[in-house]
Amino acid sequence: MRIIQSPGKYIQGPDVLSTLNNYIRPLGSRWLILADPIMRLHVARLSSEADGLHFQTEIFNGECSRQEIQRVAVLAEKHRCDGIIGFGGGKVLDTAKAVAHYQHLRAVMLPTVASTDAPTSALSVVYSEEGAFEEYLFYPANPDMVIVDSTIVANAPVRLLVSGMGDALSTWFEAQACYESRAANMSGGQSTRGALNLARLCYDTLLQEGVKAKIAVEQKVTSRALERVIEANTYLSGIGFESSGLAAAHAIHNGLTQLDECHHFYHGEKVAFGTLAQLVLQNSSDAQIDEVLDFCLAVGLPVCLEQLGVKGDVKDKMSKVAKKSCSEGETIFNMPFIVTPDSVYSALLVADQLGRKKAGLPAQV
């Protein structure tokens, strides 16, 4: 059985939030807006009560945790909401999706950055209150709608767009691994050829447009390259990973979240290094690894552990990361060969040294 899944509707373009009410009116009249604190000034644009629409705004507390999901769910029930609007980054959106699932609400995602593929997916990544990975929550349906205002994305911090490219960078390699191993995708089925080709298009788009898109955001302007990278980071990566599957790169990311020094780095920055480690783990060609390293350096993604804040006791720390990456049920076991903590530990150290060499940093013993 082959399955491909996606949100009900995906909308992207400059200033599309100005017509938000037209899109959500058919879905319900009472909405809870869960907003990132830094988007306070933009919330007024969303909450103009017209044509029978009513909005209740709540500011996100900062972590997609069980406690935050419960807190927001209580508010949604109190205000008798028909739906929830997630307005912010990936953790805001993941929390909104969880609340929508548990409260049986419509879900509309308004990502304000192109930093992850969270907006389109039927899952949430749950962390502890301290920011350590805890679990994935899987839902029977994707969000009803994803609306990406590229003007807002163009004015977001550049590092967030680059982090999104780091997350999207893994999509093709993890999809390819799952396809070869015939691993189940996030829906429990096999990948379709369409999903696999979307994953490949995601990778090709990053290589072709990534640097130009970064420059556009540095100048706070939209461009064709930026529109394509937003689509790659958000939609192509989302459909690619969810309908093809995850493998080593994201499992290694989850392992890295155990290190305190990695907590202030973004999801996609850790995934980028996880992608390099996966390429080493599967013994990819020198040309393939160099292509990924060159891309990471060109856009500013980390290529070694030092660039993720890991400087002392590297071998001991990587042993812990490797063991966590190989926890029972982790996606690393979707690789098309036997994976052990020892093989992951070796891949982490080799990837680190390859990255250091490419970045012109001295080798570490």
TrEMBL record:
Binds 1 zinc ion per subunit. Glycerol binds at D117, D167, H250, H267. Pathway: Polyol metabolism; glycerol fermentation; glycerone phosphate from glycerol (oxidative route): step 1/2. It catalyses: glycerol + NAD(+) = dihydroxyacetone + NADH + H(+). InterPro entries: ADH_Fe/GldA (IPR001670), ADH_Fe_CS (IPR018211), Glycerol_DH (IPR016205). CDD domains: GlyDH. Keywords: Metal-binding, NAD, Oxidoreductase, Zinc. Residues 7-149 form the Alcohol dehydrogenase iron-type/glycerol dehydrogenase GldA domain. Pfam families: Fe-ADH. The keyword Cell division does not apply. Its EC number is 1.1.1.6. Its cofactor is Zn(2+). NAD(+) binds at D36, G90, K91, V92, L93, D94, T112, V113, A114, S115, S121, L123, Y127. GO terms for molecular function: glycerol dehydrogenase (NAD+) activity; metal ion binding. One of its GO terms (cellular component) is cytosol. It comes from the Bacteria. Belongs to the iron-containing alcohol dehydrogenase family. This is Glycerol dehydrogenase.
